[in-house]
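Homework help thread (please don't just give me the answer)

Our assignment gives two proteins as sequence + structure token strings and asks us to describe the second one. The first is just a warm-up. Here they are:
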Amino acid sequence: MAHRETHRTDRIGWLRAAVHGANDGIVSTASLLVGVAAADAGHAAILTAGSAGLVAGAMSMAVSEYVSVGSQADSQQADLVRERHELDMQPDHELAELTSIYVKRGLSLALAAQVASELTAHDALGAHARDELGIIDATAPQPLLAALTSAVAFSSGGALPLLVSAVAPSAVLLPALAASALVALVTLGVLGARTGGAPVLKAAMRVGVMGALAMALTAAVGALVGVATS
């Protein structure tokens, strides 16, 4: 019977952007709403601030992801261009370099030289990209995908506290926002950990504690500002 292995490396690009975006959407929007509510602002002001924060946050996430991942892609492309030039100009040196890499990984010199020679004949640039530069297709940066994923994830995460603020009575708005955001953060942490094959409890505790801290600090600032301006 064939042995099937399930790996999650190919999920790294979109999974990181999705988890980061949704987590940031929940924390940013909920913290903003909690801070404004703690300042005794009216319901309309709370919803306006939350809506503006949601849109601004989603756009900020999209732009920052596109720029950062795009810079990573440009850097990798520059490395590949440089490596291609070196292969054209110094093929013997590059072959020796590849052989040395395999020797350091545990192969004998004779076997390392054979492997390097055969891989060079098959796809020299691919071999150097993978084994010298650490560039593989499964983790190749995709700026547009990362930007879209982050924006959609942020909007999805931020929609929950915004919805709670729209329907919850003013008397219980703060605890309702905090409780719903924490539940969502822990759930997100569990889902992200399971999707990526990481420890579930550690991920859930990490996002829950940091989310609670963010909302507590924002509420304190909002309360102080509210008192100072009243």
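The one we have to describe:
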Amino acid sequence: MEPTPTTDGLVWEDSPGPLRRPLLVAAFEGWNDAADAATFAASYLARHGGAERVAHIDPEAHTDFQSRRPQVELVDGVTRAVAWPTSSFWVARFPERDLVVLQGIEPSYRWRSFCRAVLDVYETTGCEMVVTFGALLADVPHTRRVKVTGTATDPELISRLALEPSRYEGPTGIVGVLHDECRAAGIPSVSLWAPVPHYIASPPNPPASAAILDRFARLTGVTLDLSRVQQTVSRWTQQVDQVAADDDDIRGYVERLEARFDEADDETPQWGDELPTGDEIADELEQYLRQLREE
């Protein structure tokens, strides 16, 4: 018999067991996920942490199946089965700490109810903080390093980790709503966003995913071997460079973006220049979380 969903659609499949200083990491397909860069980063953490699925959110409560249709699949080449679009929670274990990774789909309905289900998992697994990944289309050249923006809802956490308070006003996605729910519940949360060149919007975008993972590793102290991801980044960049070189219009446009990017770069302190090192940031995070546990 299938487990019965809670009021908010949460279904527990297995006990996560004791976790070591866990963090909840979330990324959502859709509006918050340009070129699938954010969800790729989350799936990387799940795969490389030997993830085990422990829960999911019933799509019946939150999904418009006409805009996000289920898929018919063949099982053993004979039996037809329906695969439903589902947001799933995976436990990934790393030497430094455990992660509860939510690989999700931006809900169509009842966003606050959806967030309650996410925070139920947060509380049940004893997580210390929520970290979300996002990616957005921007006027940036593919030839320059990806500048990940980090922000948090807690002013003290922003100060400790040298993040930036968000100044954005306008439409938001499930990531923005989840962070607001964390703020209201007094739960520390951090959001990491990578820009994706708008002229290469089709997935994948390995540079953006790699930048999110690198920033996450430095923020949390989790050791990630990104060597294979960087190889993929190199191949992807070479392919895009070749396309740009063969088209005068694209090449000229990229050169204008480079000039604008470099001008802004000269005026703005960059991560790692006048800001704390990765080890210092991880130490600050641990000190902040330890202080929260004591309180």
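TA reply:
I won't write it for you, but here's a hint about the kind of observation we're looking for: The chain has one domain: 10-294.
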